[in-house]
Design goal:
By secondary structure, the protein is of the alpha+beta class. The chain contains two helices and four strands; from the N terminus they run βαββαβ. The chain has a four-stranded antiparallel beta sheet with strand order 1-4-2-3, with helices on one face. About 20% of the residues are buried.
């Protein structure tokens, strides 16, 4: 069964979700600009870059962190 945190907003929210869910996670924008783009995070070192990519592909402020 998948686990997710819904409607997150900030980088601190991403950090919290990863601590709670563990790796790997996928960051899913609520309103994506490029719907085909997937943002998977496998390690802590990738988290900040993944969050930037998420922000660049999200026309809204909310996103979901989904445990893969």
């Amino acid at each position: 069964m998948s686990k997710a945190f819904l409607f997150l907003h900030t980088f601190e929210d991403v950090e919290y979700a990863v601590r709670a869910l563990g790796f790997p996670v996928e960051l899913v924008p609520q309103t994506p600009i490029r719907i085909e783009e997937k943002i998977r995070v496998d390690r802590q070192e990738e988290l900040e870059n993944a969050y930037r990519r998420l922000c660049n592909n999200n026309s809204g402020r909310e996103f979901t962190a989904l445990r893969l």
